Amino acid sequence: MKNYISKYHLNSIFLPELIKELDIVEIEKNAYLTYQSSKFTHLYILVDGKLKVEFCNVDGKFFVFTFATPLFLVGDLELFHARKNSFINTISAQEHSVLLSIPLAAVKIFGLNDPCFLEFVCNQLSNKLFESSLFQTGVFLNVEEKLKRFLYYNSKKNGSLFSLEKRENLASVLGVSVRQLNRAIKSLNEKGIIISKNKKVKIIDYCSLENNIES
């Protein structure tokens, strides 16, 4: 616990009263942290591992929103949403993951009136809004442009060599079909922008990748 608090400077985010309420939760690969509409009783902070965040619509189809890495807050949407009593998304572990949990009751007493805690929550919400807007602009971006944008921002976080998610999951994040995604990956390979093999991707031509993205 002390190592995670020190690593992520949580003492500068949470009051001592909230720090005392922290508990460690470990979940194994493919296990679930929350289910859609399950009871919302705790906030969770991802401090190690990777999570998949998805939503099931009324037709029973799952949409993957994101793959979360530290430092990621679970429950910030629910904290200020009209559906305060239940989780909005289903969240599972992509690998062995460690989270810190905070009882919702303690958050309401010690967090909601603390500027540092509220700033942390706002930053988390802002990041999620930014990431969700990157790839759900189908009117303006073709599949290859969506993939280039995904690879660009992934490389900024993880470097020029990283692993892709399962094609089905990545296609869901980008809002495209698996067939369209495969064609886009093949096209970027043929253009010499990337080299991909199995799940590994290496960025070769970073300038072409970022062209027009920052603007």
From TrEMBL:
Keywords: DNA-binding, Transcription, Transcription regulation. It comes from the Bacteria. One of its GO terms (biological process) is regulation of DNA-templated transcription. GO terms for molecular function: DNA binding. Residues 146-210 form the HTH crp-type domain. InterPro entries: cNMP-bd_dom, cNMP-bd_dom_sf, HTH_CRP, RmlC-like_jellyroll, WH-like_DNA-bd_sf, WH_DNA-bd_sf. Residues 25-107 form the Cyclic nucleotide-binding domain. This is Similar to transcription regulator. It comes from Photorhabdus asymbiotica subsp. asymbiotica (strain ATCC 43949 / 3105-77) (Xenorhabdus luminescens (strain 2)).
